[in-house]
Amino acid sequence: MPQPDHEIAGPIRSFLRIGKGASHDGDGMRRLVGTLAFAIALCGPAAAVPARAPDLSTTDAVLRWVNGYRAKPDFAHVPVAVRTLSQLGALHDTETAAVYVGFVAGIIRSHPQKADELVEKMLPIKAEDHWFIVRAVAYSGMPGWREVLARFANRMPTRQLMIEKYMSGKLPTLESISFDKSPTTLDKLKGYAAAVGDFFTGRHKASEPVSLEATSEVLDTLWGYYFATAGYEPVERILRMLPWSKDRQDADKLTVGSMAKFTLASNAAHDAGLLAMLKREVPRQPEEVRPVLNEVVEAAETMELAHMRKAALAAIEDLKRKGPGDKREMSTWGQVGQGVLAAGCVAAAATGQVEFGLPCVVGGALGSAALNYWTKD
Q1: pTM for this one?
Q2: Alpha-carbon distance 333 to 337, whole Å?
Q3: Given this model, what pLDDT does residue 338 score?
Q4: Quick check: is 213 in a domain?
Q5: Domain shared by 245 and 131, yes or no
């Protein structure tokens, strides 16, 4: 190991003194040169010892390696890990593979100059898993990611349409995550009235920019991105989900917000760098984020994670059982004509969208991934 400067300086001063007192004959000079050469060899770096290859034989082993990557980066084994996941069938489902998508996206963003090299080494995975490469490149957000996809498009023929849609902006990336609040009762009624008005007038609503719904899958993707980079960007997006942990209108948002809150606390409890980052962010966050983030920091520091998880489960079950909060606030509904409400329910039933109007809502539906996660003992 190289010695600190002050440790190296001592031997050098000794060598200077030897030089001053040495005889001017050839033997003295040869001894001085030999001593200097030996000292330089001692101060130089030790011979490199080949690092032991990580265990990437199972999905659990790969996930452990991914989780520890930010502390010990190992770019050379990233394509090996991806090929293993493909061989084991772990990239078959987009929801369960989300953390790996985010991880590779973060790797690409951190090493843009090696993006082509990484894609080249991942291409041997199963053709049906090429969606993984396409999405990881698009989600990386690195400058020129579209050009990377264009260069490899012909070598992923089964994903031509997917590549075209990402390149043309018809499929959303992590840059376009939607963090909209749950609409209130009056918001929904205004939207319904506007839709009815457009139907009778023949007006067509202008198409909105494509956005990525913030789901449990997106949450996993952001964590994968963090595992690769240990950066603030994915954490900042997770923080924006925290107010949803107080949402009482939308079970999906409540679930995602609660998962964001729990995973932040759980990871920060074992990641000093992340905990320090969250503490720094408390005073900088908006009013609706700050109190929830304080709860996260406290839970991480006191290891009160089980209590947080139980409270989240109770809130989700309560919303499923009682329905959205504004359904229970009947004072608002008293201002609305019964004919409008009936028409809303009929229209919703006719289109199969029984959740369209609040009077038709019996409870929120949880996604399978979120449900499996939260019901584990």
Answers
A1: 0.69
A2: 8
A3: 33
A4: no
A5: no
Question: 249, 326 in Cβ contact below 8 A?
Answer: yes
Domain membership flag for residue 97: yes
Same domain, 309 and 368: yes
* Cβ atoms of 248 and 324 closer than 8 Å: yes
Whether 197 maps to a domain, the answer reads no
The pLDDT of residue 38 is above 90: no
**Owning domain of residue 22:** 5-43
Give the three-class secondary structure for 25: coil
DSSP per residue, 305-353: HHHHHHHHHHHHHHHHHH--HHHH-HHHHTTS-HHHHHHHHHHHHHHT-
- Model pLDDT for residues 238-259, shown as the tens digit of each residue: 999 999 999 888 888 988 999 9
pLDDT band, very low/low/confident/very high, at 81 (cuts 50, 70, 90): very high
pLDDT, one tens digit per residue, over 116-134 is 999 999 999 999 999 999 9
CA-to-CA distance for 247 and 317, rounded, in angstroms? 13
Q: Is residue 50 domain-resident?
A: no
